[in-house]
Design brief:
Length: 65
């Protein structure tokens, strides 16, 4: 699934609902493009781009459910 700014035009409540739905797709590949740190926070891996180049990669370990 590709999601380009999926919460960009939503109010905070509905944005949280969309992020929860995306998080629940954990067994599927989801590519999320965003400028919002709150949206990026749901990711296991975050790639930061600057001037079209990869400048940082963050990998987060998830707790087992």
């Amino acid at each position: 699934m590709l999601a380009d700014e999926p919460t960009g035009n939503l109010d905070q409540e509905n944005g949280a609902i969309v992020l929860a739905l995306l998080r629940n797709l954990h067994r599927r590949a989801v590519v999320l493009v965003t400028h919002e740190p709150e949206a990026a926070a749901i990711a296991d891996r975050v790639l930061h781009l600057q001037d079209g180049k990869l400048c940082q990669e963050d990998v987060r370990l998830r707790e087992s459910a």
